[in-house]
Write a structure and sequence with these properties.
globular; 11 strands; 4-stranded antiparallel beta sheet; about 30% helix
Length: about 230
């Protein structure tokens, strides 16, 4: 029987912009099972990235319950939330967010600097992560020496180097050409199927969504019925 990893009930998120209240999420309820690969779809402004940021503990809900791996994120202070996020969440950004003056190795190592691992242990973990994304031969290159697809693979290595419980990806192929995007999606699929990682991927691309095991759709902050895309 599947283990429920994320339990969301009546979740809402509101922002105030220029004196007006904007409802980004409106009464969302959702369960995500361990080892799911969920594609979260919807048009621009539908609340997809907002939901991802709430799952990561980057933002906080206005109303409702958000329980991740048995932890009510609303009960954690900012420092506790940062520690929880570093231990449990790997986040992949559309814009890569690599530090230009650091090598691929050094970018991937960054999350490990917040742990108690020794230098040799960090080195081993970084090399393993870069091997998983096929970039051991580029570990000493800086971002400007890499293609967009390689930069995103470095970002994936950085996200998985702490062996997170789940991976959140915000339009991970949005800035890539078709071939590089396919490589990134295959890596995510491998992480899900072979390493049993739970993944939530925001995308507007139906082709990208086909790599997932489930789809869910947001429209104007409201979650529509879910679709299973594979058996």
């Amino acid at each position: 029987m599947s283990e429920t990893m994320v339990k969301i009930r009546n979740l809402s998120k509101k922002f105030v912009r220029d004196g007006f209240e904007v409802v980004a999420l409106d009464g969302v309820s959702l369960d995500i099972q361990k080892e799911d690969f969920l594609a979260l779809m919807g048009p621009s402004g539908s609340g997809k990235s907002t939901l991802l940021n709430l799952l990561a503990g980057i933002d906080r809900p206005t109303e409702g319950q958000l329980n991740v791996m048995g932890t009510d994120l609303a009960t954690l202070g900012e420092s506790e939330l940062a520690k929880w996020r570093n231990a449990h969440v790997g986040y992949i950004f559309q814009t890569f967010n690599l530090i230009p003056v650091l090598t691929a190795f050094e970018n991937v190592e960054l999350p490990l600097l917040l742990t108690n691992l020794s230098k040799s242990e960090r080195k081993r973990n970084v090399e393993t992560a870069l091997e998983l994304v096929g970039l051991t031969d580029r570990m000493h290159h800086r971002p400007k020496q890499l293609s967009g697809g390689q930069e995103q693979r470095v970002a994936i290595a950085r996200a998985i180097v702490v062996d997170p419980d789940f991976i959140l990806a915000d339009e991970p192929t949005g800035n890539l050409d078709a071939r590089s995007g396919e490589e990134v999606l295959n890596i995510l699929s491998t992480l899900n199927k072979k390493l049993n990682k739970t993944i939530v991927m925001v995308t507007h691309d139906p082709h990208a969504a086909r790599f997932a095991t489930h789809e869910k759709h947001l429209e104007k902050g409201v979650l529509l019925d879910a679709l299973s895309v594979v058996s």
